[in-house]
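Handoff note, outgoing to incoming analyst
You'll be picking up this chain. Sequence as last confirmed:
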Amino acid sequence: MSALVCGLLAACGTLPDGGEPRSFVSTYGVDSTRPEQFVYCHGASCGTHDRIALSAREWSDIRRAMTPPARSAGEERQQIALAVARYEAAAGQKTGTANDRGGNIKGMLENMFDTSQIDCVSETINTTTLILMLDDAGLLRWHEPGRPANRFGATGWFHSTAVVREKATGENFAIDSWFFDNGQPAAVVALKDWHAGWSPE
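Most recent structure output, in case you need it:
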């Protein structure tokens, strides 16, 4: 749902600046990171959130993205990106967000109140929830959930992302699912590059 929404949210101060991942998502009513029951955000700044559950088959499909255990941190980050895709696809069928468009700037005024679209704040909350879910299940070997990050681009637009921290090096990586359509693997990029304005374009 676009940079305009995210820019307005920044002006209103509705996105906490980072914070530990579990306390960050709890700010938006995410009180569980269990596949059997969790909150999924959509619309602007988690203005709409549904309490949903993954079926055993859906959760198994997400877990398969993380198996076999990664042989390196880089491989695990790609597994996380794929897990995000499967998570979004499953949630999209339950929340009416299956047609969410990535990085949607065209038509942003028309889409501002379209709850089938997911802005950068909601994407950050959802992806952080999944990362916590994976961690709780013991599926992260090389990483731990990181503090969500915010940035202002050269044009003044606000943007946010979920983050994982590599255990061995302490380096942070953005797991940014906003750039792509529902069900596509998230972008994975060193957080320092993301802060510098990285985008897939």
